[in-house]
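Quick sanity check, BON domain-containing protein:
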Amino acid sequence: MTGTVAPGDGPHYELRLEGHLDEHWSTWFDGLTLHHETDGTTTLTGTVTDQAELHGLLSKVRDLGATLISVRRRS
């Protein structure tokens, strides 16, 4: 891959976690948007600039002890 990705550019991802996370975790997850679903899950959505950032987010889910239900690339 060549070139530089500007902030805000890149694919949009959706991470779905078991349970409802408090809103303050949005900052820890690099500003991803948290949405509490009616089924008791939390969806984190936002732009991820590269695979290294995605792996960092997945590590944060692990470190938090949250159960990861799914990861989906939206664009």
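Posting the structure with no commentary besides this: Confidence is low (pLDDT under 50) at residues 1-5.
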